[in-house]
Amino acid sequence: MVLQVVPRLDTGGVERGTLEMVEAVVAAGGRALVASAGGTLAGRVARLGGTLYPMNLASKNPFTLWQNAGLLARLVREEGVAVIHARSRAPAWSAWLAAQRTGVAFITTYHGVYRENLPLKRAYNAVMARGRPTIAVSTYVRDLVALRHGLAAEHLITIPRGADLRVFSEDAVGDARTVGLAEAWGLVDDPRPVVMLAGRLSHWKGQAVLIEAAAALARQGIEALFLIVGDGRERYRRALEARISALALEASVRLVGGCQDMAAAYKLASVAVSASTEPEAFGRVAIEAQAMARPVIATDHGGARETVAPGETGWLVPPGDADALAAALAEALALSPEARQRIGAAGRARVEGAFSLERMQQATLAVYAQATGQRFPGLPALDT
Are 366 and 21 in contact (CB under 8 A)? Predict the structure, then answer.
């Protein structure tokens, strides 16, 4: 019996990881519980075979955290929970207290690079290093946790996030899905290669850097269609649109909004870009695009250094450097179809070998089993 605790179940890596482990626990013959304040993805818990317990775990109010600890402890006792898995700081404090009261195993996943720019912030973040073990989503995050919190190596394990190879596969994406998306985005009669940057509209995700790189390529006479995929703050969207207009790039740079079928989106792309100006803790864009056999250009820091192999599956460029990004894009767009296919195949093989969803699920199930001494009936052996 596994209880995962998260603030809410809306779009994001934490939420996706939660649902992926609900699926894995149920498939392995266990019971999967999720305590959360709800959200747009809450209904998927039941559809995957899990059970959702509504609880105000999004609150940071100390009194509410204390109340939630009591509610979680009662849930643990009533349902026979063997392990609590916390994925975010506020609910982790309640979950840790509940684990202390009930004696069950307490595991955390350190998903992000939490800021420490306010007094006592490191102490608040430290609950995410109290898991035994603490799961880091990349070697970059593992090293950061060890440095910040002094966590011993035996209490840290790296389990990278994974791409669902059943979904992110060229063969799995039918023509109807691709054509439908191409029609929606006005690509059907456009012969230009597509450069795609997917991610929430946020300053640090690097959309502005891509726009500047597009301008540099236009000055060189290199034609491409740049699609920025994602939703975000309207004020930032307007700023991006203003910059596109100022550079006279309306015909080549488009903000297409969010997309619910990223596998089909990547199939339309010639090259995928992750231009984050701050380090990604892991970065799903790079592995999902590689799973779709697309060359990837990412910034040379954070998790991208582990997921992208320069010269084999893509390029790494300095963060915030539009000229370097433009140079890498020029190289990628000049590839022959055969060369692009070789890079794409290498990327797919890299994800299959180290960054698949199945591998992440199996490794996390193994952590649950080790922490509780209870093996899941359907847990397969993990190749190493």
Answer: no
- Which tokens sit at 143? 């090293």
If DSSP codes are grouped into helix, strand and coil, which group holds residue 273? strand
How far apart CA 105 and CA 152 sit, in angstroms, is 18
- Buried b / exposed e along 290-300 (16+ C-beta atoms within 10 A): bbbbbbbbbbb
Where do the H-state alpha helices sit in 60-127? 62-79, 89-102, 121-125
Strand ordering across the sheet containing 253-257:
253-257, 225-229, 194-198, 271-274, 296-299, 314-317
Is the CB of residue 186 less than 8 Å from the CB of residue 193? no
Tens of pLDDT along 141-166?
999 999 999 999 999 999 999 999 99
pTM of the model: 0.90
Q: Kindly state the helix (H) or strand (E) to which residue 191 belongs, with its residue range.
A: none
DSSP secondary structure, 294-334, as one string: --EEEESSTTHHHH--BTTTEEEE-TT-HHHHHHHHHHHHT
pLDDT, tens only, 253-268 = 999 999 999 999 999 9
In this prediction, residue 210 has a pLDDT band, given cuts at 50, 70 and 90, of very high
Rounded to whole angstroms, how far apart are CA atoms 146 and 110? 11
Instruction: State the burial class of residue 261 (Cβ atoms within 10 Å of its Cβ: 0-12, 13-18, 19+).
Output: middle
Are 84 and 95 in contact by the 8 Å Cβ rule? The answer is: yes
C-alpha distances out from residue 264 to 93, 181, 268, Å = 39, 7, 7
Structure-block tokens of residue 89: 């700081």
Find out whether the peptide bond into 133 is cis, omega within 30 degrees of 0. Answer: yes
- Give the bridge partners for 86, in sequence order: 5, 108
